């Protein structure tokens, strides 16, 4: 998606350890009108899939998922990183390894909000090594629901997570796929 690639080049920057920072418009401060355009694109890509729920993970995916869900007219369910006292029901659980935080954590979704009748679209901001995405897929499987696919804003193709999930037979649509990032060479996108 050229609009997104242009925004990354204009407003994103490369931080320490060649980390792409898009916090000025995507995952800390949200440019709502811009993210609505991303949501429209996810809708265009998945509109024929009869989506009943959008699933994401706390916290950065929530805003993107909500702005996408308005086009599908479906609820957003987000996996919490900790089970809190206000989750009274049984939960589906999975473990995620965070490369950013360098630790494992459990994610939970209440069984009240995900079930065998659901056709789920996963929405998330980044896909790198695939740990968060595979954990969300595990929650969907535990619920007996169907996975329609995954909509990813930015895929770091050089880290292999997208191919890992695609090899599982899951449809992954990434709006921007990055081939490489370095302070020396900048951001290089995969040819679409």
TrEMBL record:
Subunit structure comment from the entry: Homodimer.
InterPro entries: PRTase-like (IPR029057), PRTase_dom (IPR000836), Pur/Pyrimidine_PRTase (IPR050118), Xanthine_PRibTrfase (IPR010079)
Residue sites binding 5-phospho-alpha-D-ribose 1-diphosphate per the record: 128-132
Pathway: Purine metabolism; XMP biosynthesis via salvage pathway; XMP from xanthine: step 1/1
Superkingdom of source: Bacteria
Keywords on record: Cytoplasm, Glycosyltransferase, Purine salvage, Transferase
SUPFAM superfamilies named among the record's database cross-references: PRTase-like
Protein name: Xanthine phosphoribosyltransferase
Keyword Glycosyltransferase: yes
Residue stretches making up the Phosphoribosyltransferase domain: 43-157
Binding site for xanthine: 20, 27, 156
Species per Swiss-Prot/TrEMBL record: Ruminococcus bromii
NCBIfam families: PRK09219.1, XPRTase
Subcellular location: Cytoplasm
Role this protein plays: Converts the preformed base xanthine, a product of nucleic acid breakdown, to xanthosine 5'-monophosphate (XMP), so it can be reused for RNA or DNA synthesis.
Enzyme Commission code(s) on record: 2.4.2.22
Family: Belongs to the purine/pyrimidine phosphoribosyltransferase family. Xpt subfamily.
Source taxonomy: Bacteria, Bacillati, Bacillota, Clostridia, Eubacteriales
UniProt catalytic activity: XMP + diphosphate = xanthine + 5-phospho-alpha-D-ribose 1-diphosphate
GO biological process: purine ribonucleoside salvage; xanthine metabolic process; XMP salvage
Alphabetized GO MF terms: xanthine phosphoribosyltransferase activity
GO CC terms of this entry: cytoplasm
